Amino acid sequence: MLMLIVMLMSGTATSQLPEFSQQYRQRLGGAIDALEEILADFNRDAAAHGLSSAEAIARQKASEDPFIQARGNSMINAEIRLSRLKQQQSELETAGPVQRLMIFARGFDPQLAQATAEDYEPAVPVTATGFAAAGIGALAGLLVMRILVAIGRLGRRRKPRNP
Q: Domain of life of the organism in this record (predicted)?
């Protein structure tokens, strides 16, 4: 009975992976839009002063003011993050359901994953991927329980008998 409960719990937990990944993908698009807007504003401001984006950032980094230097670093980090998120979005759009889980696991954005987790709403898996994830989790739970039972049996067998 305990083994069945563990299988159900682990299957239920892993069945949520596709849903979490889907909610993450939705947030991914929003994060890309927000970063693009920030960078577009920065580029407009730079152009209004006759600077390219790279020149404006270089000017910020060369500033004596630590705040202005930090803003230059923030803009570089925003550009890098935007590039990484766009690459991930492109990979996720062309991948199959199982591949999406692999892409997510391989390179998720920590800030975006944390925001997704904070607002995550569990869902019943009604897709093939959801059922497959639940099955894998159930099998993992079964395997863990079997290993624990085997270890428990070994411990009992090794106890010396009293004469």
A: Bacteria
